[in-house]
Amino acid sequence: MEQTIKILIYIHAFLGGLGLIFGMMSILVKKGGINHKKAGKIFSYAMVISSLISLFVARMPNHENLFLFLIGIFTIYMVFSGNRALTLKSKLKLKADTIDKLISGIMLVASIVMIVIGIYGMVNKIDKSILYIFFGGLGGFMALKDFQTFKAFTENKNAWIRNHIGRMIGALIASVTAFMVAGLHIGSLLVWITPTLIGTGYIIYWTKKIKTV
After folding, report:
1. What is the DSSP string of 95-135?
2. This prediction's pTM
3. In contact, 178 and 93? CB cutoff 8 Å
4. What is the mean pLDDT of the chain?
5. For a designed S-S bond to 100, which of 32, 41, 96, 200 qualifies (C-beta 3.0 to 4.6 A apart)?
6. How far is the C-alpha of 177 from the C-alpha of 166, rounded, in Å?
7. Strand (E) positions, 63-166?
8. Crossing angle for the helix pair 2-28 and 159-178, to the nearest 10 degrees
9. Angle, helix 159-178 to helix 189-211, in steps of 10 degrees
């Protein structure tokens, strides 16, 4: 069993690295172009499979890690939500469907769990409990924004692209953070939070740019 887990960890790390590379490529190339779409697809598949493996590994004996398990859910949500946002165009559909709502609903529940765990940890002075609150709050905020978008995307022609950018950058943030923490073994709070702050700045930049178009 331990050998199998090691193999899964290697596959997880390889796919995570692949996702990181193609995620960066999707940012650097022209948005909406062929290269952007190809890089985005590879990034999406790599991140989802890598995260699914992490869910399994994070619950195995001697490898239990509740936080990484929840971050795996966070990453999968980001990728799924980001890609589903591409269908939120008034010309493609008139309302959000069950899959859209289910993806965001699961993230909302996971976020509440993370926040509760974080608060419990803070009260009991458990190390790095603030991370549960930070990522739980971020995930919950995005999930709630999804439901707002579901109601208004037919009225706002740019709602889908803002949602897409926000969620895909969120998934990239998760891959960068995982690389720094798991790959480089740098586990300080600053390392956990910095990619999120930089990524959020990027999201804000593009959100404002889209509004001016």
Report:
1. S--HHHHHHHHHHHHHHHHHHHHHHHHHHTT-TTTHHHHHH
2. 0.82
3. no
4. 84
5. 96
6. 16
7. none
8. 130
9. 160
| Cα 62 from chain centre | 26
Supply the pLDDT for residue 90.
62
What span, in angstroms and rounded, lies between the C-alpha atoms of 13 and 9?
6
pLDDT, tens only, 105-160: 999 998 999 899 999 999 998 877 888 888 889 889 989 988 988 887 777 777 78
- DSSP-derived letter for residue 63 is -
d(CA 113, CA 191): 23
**What tokens does 5 get?**
């887990």
The number of angstroms, rounded, from the C-alpha of 67 to the middle of its chain's C-alpha atoms is 14
What does the block give as tokens for 120?
Answer: 């419990």
Segments making up each domain of the chain, as ranges = 2-211
Tokens representing 18 are 């692949």
Q: Within a 10 A sphere around the Cβ of 125, how many other Cβ atoms?
A: 7
pLDDT digits (tens, 9 = 90+) for 151-181: 877 777 777 888 888 888 888 887 787 777 7
